[in-house]
Amino acid sequence: MSKSIIEVIGLSKKYKIFHQGGYFTFRDSFAKYIKNPLSFISDKKSHFSKEDFWVLKDISFKVNQGEVVGLIGRNGAGKTTLLKILSRITYPNAGEVRLRGRVGSLLEVGTGFHGELTGRENIYFNGSILGMKKREIDRKLDEIVAFSGVEKFIDTPVKHFSSGMQVRLAFSVAAHLEPEILLVDEVLAVGDAEFQKKCLGKMKDVSGSGRTIIFVSHNMNAIRTLCSRTVMLEKGRLALDADTETVVSRYLDQNLTIGSSISGVDLESKLEGVIKRGEPSIRLKQIDLLDEDNMPCSTFSSDHGFKICVNYECLKIVNGLRVVIYIVDEENRNLLTTVNVDDQIEVDFYKKEPGVYSSVCHIPANLFGEKRFFVSVHLEYPKVEHLILDRILGFDVVFKGYNSVSAIFKNSFARPRLKWNTVFTERG
Amino acid sequence: MDNEIVIKPNKGFLNIGLKELWDYRELAYFFVWRDVKLRYKQTAVGASWAIFQPLVAMLIFTIFFGKFAKVPSDGIPYPVFVYLGLLLWNYFSFGLNHASNSMVGNANIIQKIYFPRLIIPISSSLIGLIDLAVSSLILLGLMFYYHCMPNIIGIIYLPIVIFATFLSSVGLGCFLASVNVKYRDVRYILPFFIQMLMFLTPVIYPLSMLSKKYKWLLIMNPMSGVIETARSVIFGVGSVDLQLLFMSIFISVILFISGIVYFRKTERFFADII
Description:
The complex is a heterodimer.
Chain A lengths: L5 E13 L7 H10 L3 H4 L7 E14 L4 E5 L6 H8 L7 E7 L2 E4 L12 H11 L4 H15 L14 H13 L5 E5 L7 H16 L3 E5 L3 H7 L2 E6 L2 E7 H12 L5 E3 H7 L1 E3 L7 E10 L7 E3 L4 E9 L3 E2 L2 E7 L5 E6 L4 H5 L2 E2 L2 E9 L8 E10 L3 E14 L30
Parallel strand pairs in A: 3-7, 3-8, 5-6, 6-7, 13-21
Antiparallel strand pairs in A: 1-2, 1-4, 8-9, 10-12, 11-21, 12-14, 14-19, 15-18, 16-17, 16-20, 20-21
Chain B lengths: L3 E4 L10 H6 L1 H15 L9 H20 L9 H28 L1 H4 L8 H27 L11 H26 L3 H14 L12 H8 L2 H13 L7 H25 L3 H4 L1
């Protein structure tokens, strides 16, 4: 049993970028030959203005049986392409992969779901394209239905389901697959928090039963909970392959911008989450840390307040937008959560017209101790888009103390000025 | 571990992957099953459409070609003559049309899940068998009405011609399906192509109507042998033209093999360009 279950050797994949874009048509090919009848002999590269783009370049790693390996990297780093090659949806241009076991892949939940079919019918169809046999589905049907929690509607066409219910049903089909190797891409980005927890639990069970999992996620906490080892990709290359803690903290550090503001390409490249490139509804523009006088600043004195300013654009009418700010520590542990809807006016103006907005969160004076803090920003248009900037800006707080002695006890994350009462109760 | 899967760039030897196809046979069943379930959802008369369509086409052809144009029909009453032709032709054209659009139609599945891609065009042609079975019942009624007696021994030819139809629709369908992935023009050309092909097939007229000069053109069409053979055994007229039947089977097999080989050669790039 010394052989590893997954072996990736020198894997590379390129895409051709067509600068004309769009689909191929006979007319294009035809016109090309009219213009230059000998083009197919002379030079194969002159057809279109096209360019090779290496999505993956010389990736090698091994996975042993029973290992749960995380796969992280920014958008466009090549995670999904790697997963697609491992699941045989697309093929590499060089290198090879050896898989020694039955592969199940979950690149998306609910592939092949059809609105007109009932929940039960969709379980059968979806299960069978995922590689389950009919007998296997018959046997697990009750379990699948129970896990999804949509028993009551199982004979209703799924077009009448809420999107959350559809996702739950789809995930429970997938969760009951029993391959030796399971490839999972970002399925936890959907569904409510409670269901996400259930999914993580299910995946833990799966890994506990000796199966091998490769798990792609932007959710560092999920990676931490599930994976013992993590591989990080960077622009198509393998950047780091080590234990999860090392890789995750390196990944998070990379995200950090020096300074008090982030915008433009810099921000764009660090954006993660559920992003609809084709028809964007919301876009983050700029995040600023400002002091009380609205000056950019990244070191604050504890006796002064400061502001975190989130600029974003709504490209269509957006209902129920949430701006969430997390303040976290070095290890990405959450210290504080605050949301725009804490402000009653934001709840009243539930509907946002297209345009640019700026939401400012005021952090009061006398809250933090002397530490380094990090800011994560989430912009959430429920069920549509969920933009994440993880640990995007860092700031330091210098603790001033409330009198000449209290500054001694400065080394704590929260160091608010609370009311103290000391009374003399009994003579000693 | 015995079942090692190796994924690498395609070089040289081509494997049709019959064993894997067989392992996934249940999936073909589910594709057919899904299509049947979905087909007549939200229609008023539902599955009756499978009966109406060829019946109405038969009426129109009988009026225009049988009555007005007086197209000969080898001594068979024209309505049953043309109905049988339409039955087999519809099976072929349905399979061809469905298979050709099947890859693009299932793009979302192809981009997300692996399974032998051939399952999709093959099951497309299998779906047509259900329509064929339903409209065959009407044929029985028509035969009873027109007092047609089939050639009992000749019935053994029927599975052969239906299988030949299956082979040529899958073969041609696979070829067009993979072209369609790259060139969406197929979707627009296909209806004309199928219509034109119908006039090059003895559906509304008998093969005997043509002079020797043009006959060879129709003999190259696998559907000619299929329809002519079926007519001669079902209506019990004449004897089966074995040469024609053999030609039809031969061409069907060629179409099937070349279509599948082309499909297998190109399918690796489907997910990238679809």
